[in-house]
Amino acid sequence: MLKSFLKLLTAITVLIVIISCSTDTEYESLVAGEDFTGTDIRVLSIDTFSLKLSTMKFDSITTSTSGRLLVGQYQDDDMGVIHTSAYVQVSPSAYYLDNEAILDSVGLVLGYDTYYYNDTTQVATVNIHKLTNKMTSDDLYFYNTTETAYEATPLVTKTYLPTPNKDSLYVTLPYDFGEDLFNGIRDNIITDQESLYQQLKGLTIQPSTDDNGSVIGFSTDINTSYLRFYYTIPDELETDEYTYDMTINTYYNHIESDVTGLPLEAIVDQEYNLTSSESGNISYNQAGTGYVTRIEFPSIKDLYNLGAEGTILDATLFIEPNFASHSDIQPLSETLLLYTIDQNNDLASQISNSVDVVTATTTNVDSEFNQVAFTVPVIDFIDQKLNESPVTKDALILIPTDYNSTINKIIFNDSQRSNFKTKLVITYAVYE
């Protein structure tokens, strides 16, 4: 069907005016000079292709490489109750303390990394528990679905008002907990990581099940988050206070959502697609929990019905976020990455062009009402769908770059609900 790129380039150079229309309106022809090509050229803008939006959920997402601990709980009208907890293993840089050292106190320092989501004006709770098992994984990674057993009774419970723009949250831990570890290292009972894990397999930081405020991001950097022991050496002439730190060497975030009573409850496994028509003409994206919007173009091959040969010049998807589902405390991600998934909803590949990876960005479509849409360049995917043989059932998804380190949501309106009309627009050059 498609002519060579060289003929297309020749045709485009003689275009003076682009005539835009949809497939259900009349369009005009632009006649190129006979001496040049002898070809009638028409450029059409077509926006009547059907779109199918649905929501699927990945079985698991890696959360042990994000560089962030996520702790908190809140209730969301769209996504249910979001509960995030962090699991960490710690170790010191050296297993040595002065023989005369005496422990004064011990505490967990959690450095804020400025990330938060939802309402930080609400009081939050952290419960620090000791792990009863070591953190283990079959493939060196940990996931949002991973859980490690821990003691039912917390070492300590602390309520606090989140201040993510400040330095850190300090949680004082019981003296006897610190003394056992401190004296073990001082007395050469704990001499390496394995002997340390015999006494401290790790810690988990859990929010209260009664919390309804925010999820807070804490850094995993060794300079900002650590288990700190304060101690003195009494025999010195001047009794100075010293510190001894254990830093995070392994971590992951467990992220779950209770969607009881919501449309999302129907999603029972990764292969299930909840169509937007079954969920109030919206679809869901949420980082951390694994929800994504699946985008299909079931009528794309109607382009063949034009009855003339031509070439796609451009293909852009406009997809509108639901305005009521975002706010200052639940901000909208401004850039999304474009991926393909196969018929089983397994991630296939990231879409890129000759310059860089393809991204979706927000654009203002109605300044009066502050209405925005994501514009997504999809020409490569559309070309693939038009020319593939055999036909596949792969689709597009949009995810933020921080998909495994945040819990930000995006609710999309389908074409039935969108005032702006979520739509695919194809610019098509026809020549005879």
How would you characterize this protein structure?
By secondary structure, the protein is mostly beta strands. The chain has two domains: 46-58 and 262-431; 68-258, no CATH class. The chain has four helices and 24 strands. It has helices at 5-13, 175-186, 193-199, 379-387; strands at 30-31, 40-46, 52-57, 68-76, 80-92, 102-118, 124-130, 156-160, 168-172, 203-206, 214-219, 226-232, 241-258, 274-275, 282-286, 291-296, 310-321, 335-341, 347-350, 359-366, 371-377, 395-399, 409-413, 423-431. The strands form two sheets. Strands 1, 2, 3, 14, 15, 16, 17, 18, 19, 20, 21, 22, 23 and 24 form a 14-stranded antiparallel β-sheet that branches. β18 (335-341) and β19 form a beta hairpin. The chain is elongated. The N and C termini lie close together (12 Å). Mean pLDDT is 89; it is low at 1-37.
Shape: elongated
Portion of residues within helices? under 10%
CA(first)-CA(last) distance:
12 Å
Could you tell me the strand content as a percent range? 35-45%
Radius of gyration: 28 Å
Largest sheet: 14 strands, antiparallel
Overall average pLDDT: 89
Helix and strand succession?
HEEEEEEEEEHHEEEEEEEEEEEEHEEE
* Count of discrete alpha- or pi-helical segments spanning 4 or more residues: 4
Structure at a glance:
This protein has 432 residues and is mainly beta. The chain has helices at 5-13, 175-186, 193-199, 379-387; strands spanning 30-31, 40-46, 52-57, 68-76, 80-92, 102-118, 124-130, 156-160, 168-172, 203-206, 214-219, 226-232, 241-258, 274-275, 282-286, 291-296, 310-321, 335-341, 347-350, 359-366, 371-377, 395-399, 409-413, 423-431.
